[in-house]
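Sequence in, structure out.
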Amino acid sequence: MFHHKLENELRHLEKVLPHAGHGPFPHAYWRDRIAALTGVESNALYRSRVARLEELLAAMEKKARSRSAIPRERAA
């Protein structure tokens, strides 16, 4: 992947991922987008940015799982 394309993809993901839990795309979609960047030959800065995205997504997934595990009260 060329430097400018990688930079644009990282910038986009860093911008939208914090809001991804409220959108139409499932976490698996974002995991695939991030995974596509992990195989790219890159420098340490890019790898650390990808790692932060992976950590953010993992936290979002954990939060979503904990919300779905809470039993909801039944309507009377």
